């Protein structure tokens, strides 16, 4: 991997945060909708659009609005900066509970996902924080983990420990940890890789070398399914039915062993067309905002701010009141302290 100068690292970190938020906003109006419903309601998502009135999670939200994916990723980023690289699990639990309470107060339907909600309700009721999260197999940990990859090099000591800090409260399972590890490593390698595909390849080899943590789950292995998804992408270059086949063969639900492989597959397939990856995710159906957000973080980290149209990222920042550059700079400051 090539050495990156300071400015390039900062541009890539900002690109990752822009990719997370843009993917989230593009997928916002279609989340939890079927592919057919999306076609009937919007025709085809080709940019930032308002959500329809019967959108299941974000009815009538204006174009450019982000959801829990971006908000929780930025929440994690803030905790990493506050903890000088570490995430305190008690603070993470308290911050997520406070975030959901504020969303409820605003009347929002965009609340915590099923695994996170179940674990944090246990925390709220006095459960030992070391015992929660042992049923969390969904993608909540993976969707918010990108700042770990921005703040730490995979080659630094204990990268997997930083990932585990971000997920064990709510997703203390093999699928929860492994999906977060794959995403965080893809982002971290992306910061200094030659290309998105190089970053993903490095990340999968790294994840294979790390002993999985968390409670066992009988569900299909995330890493294995991600490898299969990338083989699928390689075999279907130029196939006009690529998106339909991807959805049908791998699924697009909130389960980490569906949405995470699909997100990485789209990032791989559209490595030279980052916006195309996010638009494909927005149209594919299912957990569209999370799939697009994860793909956007990886593509942005490996491509920088030039990956996405400036008018789109500026609209998202304006509508959602985001100021991402200082956060990106703070995470890179931590990265530069890694040995």
Automatic annotation (TrEMBL):
Record keywords: Magnesium, Metal-binding
Molecular function terms, GO-annotated: metal ion binding
Cofactor: how and how many bound: Binds 2 magnesium ions per subunit.
Residues holding Mg(2+): 67-69, 287, 289-290
Pfam families referenced in this protein's UniProt entry, alphabetically: ADP_ribosyl_GH
Domain of life: Bacteria
Cofactor field: Mg(2+)
Name of the protein in question: ADP-ribosylglycohydrolase family protein
Protein species of origin: Bifidobacterium fermentum
């Amino acid at each position: 991997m090539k050495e990156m100068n300071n400015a390039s690292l900062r541009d890539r970190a900002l690109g990752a945060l822009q990719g997370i938020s843009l993917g989230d906003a593009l997928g916002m109006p279609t989340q939890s909708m079927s592919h057919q419903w999306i076609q009937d309601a919007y025709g085809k998502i080709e940019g930032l659009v308002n959500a329809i009135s019967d959108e299941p999670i974000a009815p009538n939200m204006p174009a450019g609005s982000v959801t829990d994916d971006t908000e929780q990723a930025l929440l994690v980023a803030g905790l990493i900066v506050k903890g000088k690289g570490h995430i305190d699990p008690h603070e993470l639990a308290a911050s997520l509970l406070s975030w959901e309470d504020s969303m409820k107060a605003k009347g929002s339907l965009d609340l915590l996902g099923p695994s996170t909600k179940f674990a944090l309700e246990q925390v709220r009721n006095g459960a030992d924080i070391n015992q929660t999260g042992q049923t969390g197999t969904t993608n909540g940990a993976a969707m918010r983990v990108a700042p770990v990859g921005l703040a730490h090099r995979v080659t630094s000591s204990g990268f997997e420990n930083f990932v585990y800090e971000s997920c064990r409260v709510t997703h203390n399972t093999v699928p929860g940890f492994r999906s977060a590890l794959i995403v965080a490593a893809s982002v971290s390698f992306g910061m200094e890789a030659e290309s998105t595909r190089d970053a993903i390849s490095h990340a999968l080899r790294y994840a294979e070398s790390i002993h999985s943590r968390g409670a066992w789950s009988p569900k299909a292995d995330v890493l294995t399914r991600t490898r299969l998804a990338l083989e699928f992408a390689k075999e279907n270059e130029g196939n006009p039915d690529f998106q339909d086949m991807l959805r049908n063969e791998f699924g697009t639900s909130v389960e980490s062993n569906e949405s995470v492989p699909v997100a990485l597959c789209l990032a791989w397939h559209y490595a030279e067309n980052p916006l195309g990856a996010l638009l494909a995710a927005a149209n594919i159906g299912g957990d569209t905002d999370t799939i697009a957000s994860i793909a956007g973080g990886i593509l942005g980290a490996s491509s920088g701010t030039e990956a996405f149209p400036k008018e789109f990222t500026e609209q998202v920042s304006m509508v959602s009141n985001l100021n991402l550059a200082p956060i990106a700079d703070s995470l890179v400051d931590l990265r530069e302290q890694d040995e």
